[in-house]
Amino acid sequence: MYVYSRRRQLNPASVRKALPLAIEAGQRATAITGVDISVWMTVMSADAGTISWAALVEHLSDIGAATDKLAADDVFNDFIERNDGLFVGPVSDTVGQIISGTPDPSAPPDYITLVSATCANGRVGAGMAGGVEIAEAASRIGGLPTLFLADATGEYGGVSWITAAPDLTALEASSVKLNTDPGFLELLDGITSAYLPHAPSSILRRIG
Fold this sequence. Notes:
By secondary structure, this protein is α+β, with helices and mostly antiparallel strands. The chain has 2 domains: 94 residues, Alpha-Beta Plaits (2-Layer Sandwich), CATH 3.30.70; 110 residues, Alpha-Beta Plaits (2-Layer Sandwich). 39% of the residues lie in helices and 32% in strands. The chain contains 6 helices and 8 strands. An 8-stranded antiparallel barrel has the order 1-3-2-8-5-7-6-4, surrounded by 4 helices. A hairpin with a 6-residue loop joins strand 6 and strand 7.
């Protein structure tokens, strides 16, 4: 199973217009492709104001088929081109394969945390095994479901952890549990060498 995401930054001068258009774009894409596409906005993070259109699919071919349907729909593409000025910068696509954890499409969260890292050279095996261990421990100790993904596109060896929460209160409570649990901190310290030093973390809020 894969998580596909298309990201683009809101134009800071057009946020009030851009947000409903971003949601509408997700709704239109869902209707055209038959794939459930949710819309997220990064908040309280370095890349705040980034919109992500995300979908959960079984196979890479599902992404290809959906992309072909959108490319062939003139009405949809006219809509996107007409509103291009509401966003800035390039479009960025990512695909992550779920290695550990089981998402529940019937109960989509309102918030997620996304932590990204890259396995160090010669430590890919340790990074993958450690990533599963971290996700399982985070779910058990923090009380919120955490997925572990391996990047199918982007920098080789890229991985990520996605933790789903119903609201910010639950997200905060889970973070406190993890950051004060000696066993979890010891686990992180023991696995750190399997990854490169930079591991950014973001919070995303579902808006559509």
